[in-house]
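Margin note from the TA: students keep mixing up input and output lines. Inputs are the sequences; the output is the structure of the whole complex. Example:
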Amino acid sequence: MNKLDQQPVPGRRQLLAGSATALVAAGLGSFTQAARAQAASQAVAPAVKPLPAYVSWKDANALILHSSSTIETKRSAMGMGLITPAEQLYVRNNLPAPAPTILENRDAWTVSVEGVKSPRALSVAELKTLGVETVAMVLQCSGNGRGFFPSKPSGTPWKVGAAGCVVWTGVPVREVVELLGGLVSSPEFMTGTGGETLPEGLDPKSVMVERSLPVAAMADALLAWEMNGQPISLAHGGPLRLVVPGYQGVNQIKYIKRLAFGSVESDAKIMAHGYRISPPGSKADVSQPSVLEMGVKSWITNPLPERPGVAGRVQIQGLAFGGLRGIKRVEVSVDGGKSWSRARLVGPDLGKYAWRQFAFATTLPAGTHTLASRAIDTAGFIQPEQRLENVGGYNNNSWADHAVSVTLA
Amino acid sequence: MNKLDQQPVPGRRQLLAGSATALVAAGLGSFTQAARAQAASQAVAPAVKPLPAYVSWKDANALILHSSSTIETKRSAMGMGLITPAEQLYVRNNLPAPAPTILENRDAWTVSVEGVKSPRALSVAELKTLGVETVAMVLQCSGNGRGFFPSKPSGTPWKVGAAGCVVWTGVPVREVVELLGGLVSSPEFMTGTGGETLPEGLDPKSVMVERSLPVAAMADALLAWEMNGQPISLAHGGPLRLVVPGYQGVNQIKYIKRLAFGSVESDAKIMAHGYRISPPGSKADVSQPSVLEMGVKSWITNPLPERPGVAGRVQIQGLAFGGLRGIKRVEVSVDGGKSWSRARLVGPDLGKYAWRQFAFATTLPAGTHTLASRAIDTAGFIQPEQRLENVGGYNNNSWADHAVSVTLA
């Protein structure tokens, strides 16, 4: 076995854009896998880091590999991506993914539902008979944009690419609750617990993925078995994921094994101490706001420094979303935020939890321009200029941080 | 080089669902590519046919390989797929795809626009500065459903899977026409010509891909460079494709090199004799209706004979679309069409050219049931019970043909 056999498969774009020349030059009539891999590895510089096995099916060329459990989508790969293909979607796992054996019989996976009149475990097979809904939503790591904090918080320095817009299909949580007799009393929280295998020798509470959300979040939540029309992959929480539209990624519980309604917030470390908006200089604690709803946010995807284009007519393009609310409008600035013009919302509206594409046509002279975008949600909240400083580097929706400086020839 | 090196990469689902057991059983701690491929090829029966090189990046497990240029999506792979991932989308090429070298510099590809006041060639780079729009639409081969014709027309016997719903981004044709000074006179037709390399020694008109459409089709047509947010792959017509929402696939010209407005329909064979609705026993000729707009159509994707489920509560699910018009409602029958119930439209509405998901919850006893669906578009057109018989096996939207017989345990 040669070294190439141990490397992940080159991504599609790498094959098409990179290896084609080499192969044609070599006069090869047909592509063999080894030849393609070899050509790709020769043609593309710098070499693309191999992806870990559980995500080896992803498009390495569209991704930035921070670590085996933190993988970012390149801003330049986003295009006018209404829906982010699974192959390009970021990955952020708080614990290593469970063994792929849990996908052998997806329908047999069970989730226990507690805090309802008739609490019990339900299999995926049963859930599929109860109801079905589809929602398009932005999935975003709460640390997306951490890479723009000058304080350099610990954690992955994501720029814009710990986010995607994906489509989930599953059963509405409210329908499951109804079928189990309704909620007991008036719980304040909906708590989801992940089914990851916990490392031995540690207090489970210190590592488990368990998050509590205001019970109102139940309204549009799903227990989902499909993402983008396919059974959910291991990397993204299959066979069953709790999906809570409008909330930051950490609340979207993968491999969900327990869904409990009650009056007490989880005391797992990831809830009690992790993911808190801690003022600079403080230590995280339970009195500080937790990372819950996403704020209104947008960023430009074209032009970019790595793909500036030329002076003249330019189509400035980007993506905008509002967390719990839809997007009302987006403004674009070509002078670093001194003046703003209204952009056009483009393409289908997939609902308030999805992102919207925007475009603004203008004419720009040669030289360097600072391009910024600013989104306004349907309740009138405006994407702020400045980030809210916090120790963990969470919830960055500053338009100034997301501006790009582009030099047109 | 062993034999596995020459085979395409196993699809994601194959890896996750098929090889995991074998690997875990073998006690392997990490996945190497060769091991994965080997495990997958051992674990999956029957063996999946290798895909041709130009589509080797597709998900072989989701596809039926009719020939190297005709590849169908399995009905069972469709799920509640709002948007069909590129990896699962059917392929139908009238000519072999051009050399992948045409994707080396996508922005340099040019299309000549004729029949406008200032006719000229425009590069993709220029087109990208002119305007940008995104449309979600059903892409369907006009022969989709041919496999249900008892007359066994020549051509690929597609069942339901020569169709998908995809998102295109490009510049509206009407904006290009405007920028070139508008149309000359009042042309009847918009004619697109594909940029395939034609086989030598044949009359070009006998093989070229060139189709004329009523000029009204221009209204929502795009010259598109992205599909599903990514640069269009070679298999699907990259770097530039003419996209005409609501029309059958043959009219969506790949590698478009010429877009002409005029009063004469193309005399290429594919237009003059091919893709005509020829009555049984007749020969195709130019007096017969051409394959243009798609008819209103739907089919069930769950349950299916290969995934029947059990007696009791069942969620009957499927997909419906209306060609040039949106879907008003969908009805489902569990008794082979004797009685009908209104299904619920599910998930986001991506616009009139996209398909809608539908679901109908019911209770079914053990035994065999004939499940059918029937879509009604916003103008009131009803999906017919019977296909219109024709020599080529085109435009089959019969609900009876698309019914499934499912045996519940």
